[in-house]
């Protein structure tokens, strides 16, 4: 009878328990429910997912502004802002450019800098940046979250969290990183500590906040930290 009653209760309240599951039963018949994260939710955790064919740049920019600066912006908001000065015909055929992103950032009081760096210096990139990859002939903006001696960790607006070997990453990368700069940067933002692939074994967390001196190497100024 107890099982039948519980089943009926779950059916009647099914929409309220979306994303949860019963994990154990307590004495007396009480059931503990725990929120369950789907594979898709984990794949896009803390990332803004791309909704249109031409908006990978807007989604990548929104990810950095939301997670590293805590700004309440989304992909649609940034698209609207960039279209103010962008060539709309060009956007429809080629998407947004780094120049469009730079102009948008300046319009909201922030700064942007593009750096040409050598592949062997990827480990020195200490902030999340936008990079352009060419994947099977398709040019695509993504967020480079961090790199270590083995892997480059990417927040992809279409594919979610990915990691590439250095060689594979460099094959599709044009060598430029696009840094977003301004006041209110969160030096311990979640983009610097991307989730490991679902198949990976647990590893020691090597994340550490980045110091002011390292950030200033990328173009931050002292007043950005107050």
From TrEMBL:
Assigned EC number: 3.4.22.-
Gene Ontology molecular function terms on file: ATP binding; peptidase activity
UniProt keywords, alphabetically: ATP-binding, Hydrolase, Nucleotide-binding, Signal
A Pfam family annotated for this UniProt entry: Peptidase_C39
Record domain Peptidase C39: where: 50-180
Keyword Ribonucleoprotein included in the entry's annotation: no
Coiled coil residues, start to end: none
InterPro entries assigned to the protein according to its UniProt record, in alphabetical order: Peptidase_C39 (IPR005074)
Identification of the protein by name: Lactococcin-G-processing and transport ATP-binding protein LagD
Species annotation: Pseudomonas fluorescens
């Amino acid at each position: 009878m107890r099982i039948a009653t519980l089943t009926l209760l779950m059916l009647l309240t099914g929409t309220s328990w979306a994303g949860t599951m019963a994990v154990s039963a307590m004495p007396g018949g009480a059931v503990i429910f725990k929120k369950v994260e789907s594979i898709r939710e984990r794949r896009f955790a803390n990332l803004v997912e791309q909704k249109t064919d031409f908006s990978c740049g807007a989604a990548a920019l929104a990810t950095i502004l939301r997670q590293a600066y805590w700004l309440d912006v989304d992909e649609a908001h940034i698209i609207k802002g960039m279209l103010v000065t962008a060539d709309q015909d060009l956007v429809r055929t080629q998407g947004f450019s780094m120049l469009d992103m730079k102009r948008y950032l300046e319009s909201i009081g922030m700064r942007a800098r593009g750096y040409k760096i050598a592949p062997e210096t990827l480990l020195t990139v200490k902030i999340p940046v936008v990079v352009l990859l060419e994947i099977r002939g398709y040019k695509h903006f993504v967020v480079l979250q961090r790199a270590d001696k083995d892997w480059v960790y990417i927040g992809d607006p279409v594919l979610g969290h990915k990691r590439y070997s250095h060689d594979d990453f460099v094959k599709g990368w044009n060598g430029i990183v696009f840094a977003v700069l301004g006041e209110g940067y969160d030096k311990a933002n979640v983009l610097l500590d991307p989730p490991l692939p679902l198949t990976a074994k647990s590893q020691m967390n090597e994340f550490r906040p980045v110091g002011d001196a390292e950030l200033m190497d990328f173009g931050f100024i002292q007043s950005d930290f107050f």
